[in-house]
Amino acid sequence: MGRKGSTEHRLLVLGLLRMQELHGYQLAEIIDSHFGGKTPVKKATLYDTLRKLHEEGLVTSREEQKGNRPLRTVYALTPEGDEAFLALLRKSLGTYREIDMHGDTALMFLGALPRAEVLTLLRSRRDSVAAALREQPEEEPGDDPHHGALHAFFSRRVHNLRAELAWLDELIAELHT
Amino acid sequence: MGRKGSTEHRLLVLGLLRMQELHGYQLAEIIDSHFGGKTPVKKATLYDTLRKLHEEGLVTSREEQKGNRPLRTVYALTPEGDEAFLALLRKSLGTYREIDMHGDTALMFLGALPRAEVLTLLRSRRDSVAAALREQPEEEPGDDPHHGALHAFFSRRVHNLRAELAWLDELIAELHT
DNA sequence: CGATTCATGTAACGGGTTACATGATTCG
DNA sequence: CGAATCATGTAACCCGTTACATGAATCG
Questions:
Q1: Which of A63, A123, B58, B125 is paired with A130 by a 20 to 30 Å CA distance?
Q2: Looking at the partner chain, which of A90, A98, A159 has a beta carbon nearest the beta carbon of B121?
Q3: d(C-alpha B118, C-alpha A94), whole Å
């Protein structure tokens, strides 16, 4: 039924609706196109978020039919929606949410395996990180309407991956005694 | 009812049971003591995980009563539990799980606020990170039975926080034009 | 003509947290 | 004696994903 929709999701949807009115499917496409494959939001969640935002009066909805294509519901931001967006943005930008450490518990038990095996495993992990780093777009070529907008977002990802890599290298070297 | 219990939770519980048999409350205490306040696992989850591991035959259970204190259920690892632990550990150590980026969506919309305000907000975020970093134990004084075991775990946290800080500083400088 | 695309949803499941219930005991 | 501690659990809730359903249109 009526989910709340996390801050992140609301922020994303409101932020995109701020630039232009959109229907759900279109919204999903825009998001997917920027995150190729690994979407941070699934369609079901998007539709739900839109419905919720509409209930709250943060967006208006309007039915639209282009030719014989399926009926679509186009959403647009209301002034309240814009306010809500800015408030969320301010709160979110000014705060640091400690990132959940996943895949970390294993690090507590390095002693349970022979050092040689630990080294092999960590090197394999290192390779995964390096691969993920290579897949990151260096700097988006600028024929994108949101050109610079995503810069900070992706730059953080890259920074994080690089830090992870450096840390792993350090740990590996350390274990090498 | 019967939850699966995430890999992380299972790994943590099995790993701790590997060193000594424990009852749920004690397990929670051990975990809490190392993460002061911000526990990565809640009691309800722990009890549930233990129950599940018992169902699967990875741990044995035994009732114990010390004096008139409440009845406690003490769990101990079985050989299968030990195998399961090692398998989980190998898989987890050798793999990199991309961390969920939370609090990041806001970074996509830096353009929505005047640059001066963005700078103020980012500086406030920077301070949160710096504070979190100060709260991290530099290097655990060694009167801890798990002395070196947690080294890698905490060192990663520190590294991550430092990377976050450096990245924020860079971004702030960049926005300063 | 079968497969994919457009477009929107619903139902069920998964998995963790919150809040609450219980009951004895020890501490201030 | 009231409050906190010991010890274990359950029920409800929150939220997101998976999988499925629908139905027309277009593409190979």
A1: B125
A2: A90
A3: 8
Do B96 and A164 count as a contact with CB atoms less than 8 A apart? yes
Q: Who's near B142: CB < 8 A, 6+ residues apart?
A: none
Protein-contacted bases of chain C (C-beta within 7 A): 6-11, 14-19, 23-26
Cβ-count burial of B76 within 10 angstroms (0-12 exposed, 13-18 middle, 19+ buried)?
A: middle
pTM: 0.90
* Closest protein residue to D14 (Cα–C1'): A3
Residues 36-55 of A with CB under 8 A from B: 38, 40
End-to-end CA distance of chain B: 56
Q: What is the pLDDT of residues A69-128, one digit of tens each?
A: 788 999 999 999 999 999 999 999 999 987 776 668 999 999 999 999 999 999 999 999
Question: Cβ–Cβ contacts within 10 Å for residue A82, how many?
Answer: 15
A31 confidence band (pLDDT: 50, 70, 90): very high
Does A105 contact chain B (CB < 8 Å)? yes
What is d(CA B39, CA B157) in angstroms, rounded to the nearest whole number? Answer: 15
C-alpha span between B33 and B26 (Å, rounded): 10
- For residue B103, which of A103, A161, A154, A93 has the smallest C-alpha distance? A93
For the segment B134-160, what is each residue's pLDDT rounded down to a tens digit? 987 666 555 555 557 788 998 999 999
A11 touches chain B (CB under 8 A): yes
Task: Select from A31, A35, A108, A115 the residue whose CB has the most chain B CBs within 10 Å, as the one to mutate to test that interface.
Answer: A108
CA angle A17, A21, A27 (to 5 degrees): 65
Length, in residues, of chain A? 177
Per DSSP, helices labelled H in chain A are 7-19, 24-35, 43-55, 79-94, 115-135, 151-175
Give, in Å, how far the C1' of D1 lies from the CA of B83.
Answer: 52
